[in-house]
């Protein structure tokens, strides 16, 4: 159920786009209206979510310290895993966001007879995660060729690098293969590892299947079911310049691709995909461990009822005097 | 309450496996099993600290005597916490369930219960959050991973939030830094709104509030306890120490967990502090009012933690000290590092700590004005201010356990190691995935160290104990050093259970054994009264 439902949902989306365009001829709806709505929803939703998080303060300085703190000059501080300065935090966050530092630490716990526990290095999730996110990013950047009249040099360079193996025509992009492979691995991992399967929700499979659908439709479009590429560019340029046009004969696979991308965009702010924004706002990672050096202020700090020394002494004065302890009031 | 039987280590290990039930977790009700939970709080103790819905209750009974509008209380409380803590809001939203945390929790490793995987522990509450606080959850319900808050769900939340020691090991491995400690704290805040605390936490909290320490030691009892240690020190060293209490005008206030004053082996650590301070001629005082470094309030609610913690600065101010030294304790130091100054500061009535012996200025604590005793002592040793004879610890083969809180909530890792290496000759590290920032909890933190909870504690203590077993077999380790009062109490139990033959010590016990004091007599025994190496025949 957890798996079938999201799979069916993605298939339904494909069918919907196919029927809408091929059967009902709703090119304008699927090619213009829905993408616009999706992007608007994505931008507004993303901002809303980030603002909503930002509305809640960070009352305490709670970095997870992952190395030696700043101490004496003769003790080496781990400045990236336990930063005490803003620069250190920037470094820590960069490592976290760009190369998934925390995931790199991953270990696998093994229990043998005895009992004997061991913790081996486990890098598959890290590798697959990196491969997935980076190839997705590069593919996204490559798409800018469609958003601009002249393809900028940077994009051309990325394309060149991405296709450096010079296989096939059109040239095979490495990132296409990597993305498909990584997403497949991530799906497989959820299904094959009983504990991971146990914690997985439909909301975990749905984006994976959706991205798989996006990648597959994109690959089909580029390598197998050729679309009218000039028409595609014309249409995308029209969208980008708010001058939407719907050229004839683009091919339905393009609309399916676009519809799945639109779904992903619209789904994004409602889902766990918001980790993209959230990772920057995680107080255990984005704060310097300097709360003994610089006072962290809690905006909602309020006075509390305490048991004062005077009350304490009132209660124990006789006992304190008898024991020879100094008292405030005789 | 009936005595709860704890399974034998072999039985427990035999049955341990990492499998999943046939039913989905939402359809698998929590079974509140004897030996894995603490007795419910007494209404009297909750009443002392003015907690709401204070009453006697028993987790193993069907009826938890919840207030009529308990759901409303829960949701209002949850909204309040979401508004107050960005961490809570973000952590409720961004988990992708990658599972990196799954096998990082000592309770999962030792119990095999999937709901002890940090991700699932958090999902228990996230599912409730989704149901009532998110659009997707409101519309899609279970498909979106949402479920309504029922009495059974509440019981499950309670059960598993009191099976988390807030050690933050999961947070280390999380690609977004999601910290289950933070989620557990919120969960416990919510249970406290409903009067669902435990006896083992609420008792010490009430004690600490009224009497200044968890154990409820009254002023004269604290003095008696310390006098007893002074006698022992005199027997061993021939030196009479005269500690002072509540003394105005002292340069330094010394605060340590009250566990150090009460039971072995913590008392040996306390003797260690006093011998060191005496040898240095340090101008310091104990306080009977602020006689607790630890903070069980921290395991109940943020407000309670602040109320208990307030005594430290208040007493420092009243006594007019220049700064504070804190003893060896784990969660105490997370509180002192990440919370105290924010709650009860600024401590501008004190001065930046400067060691009167070495002149070292402790810049890293210039705002809190409180330094860790291992910082203080490491600095002394580095500057050759102590005469040490490490051979007095030669009967010991030592390994060092990083406390979760000093490791992952502070980053104090090399200071205690530096000290140990200077006061002992035989030191071996445990495997690298079990120490420093990757250290495993003792299994009994956050107020879970009750005797009725022994099975859970031994399960949670397995990863730590197993690493000790490894170095015991490899290097003959017979002593587990640490800088935490709860460790000293609870690791003793888990060592006896999993690795018999390994004892537990504080770092300053080792220091005091090695410390050559001015005018001391020829020492025959260590602080425990055992013959020193080479003196066995005497």
Brief write-up:
With 330 residues, chain A is mostly helical. Helix content of chain A is 59%, strand content 4%.
Describe this structure in words.
With 330 residues, chain A is mainly α. Chain A folds into 2 domains: 4-299, Up-down Bundle (Fumarate Reductase Cytochrome B subunit), CATH 1.20.950; 305-330, no CATH class. Helix content of chain A is 59%, strand content 4%. The mean pLDDT of chain A is 95. With 538 residues, chain B is mainly α. Chain B has 2 domains: 9-197, no CATH class; 212-514, no CATH class. Chain B has helices at 9-15, 43-48, 70-84, 86-93, 106-111, 118-133, 135-140, 151-161, 169-173, 180-193, 199-211, 219-237, 266-280, 302-319, 331-338, 340-344, 373-382, 404-408, 414-423, 454-460, 462-475, 485-498, 507-514; strands spanning 252-255, 284-286, 323-326, 370-372, 398-401, 479-482, 503-506. Chain B has a 4-stranded parallel sheet. The longest helix of chain B has 19 residues, at 219-237. At the A-B interface, helix 2, strand 1, strand 2, helix 9 and helix 10 of A face helix 3, helix 4, helix 6, helix 9 and helix 11 of B.
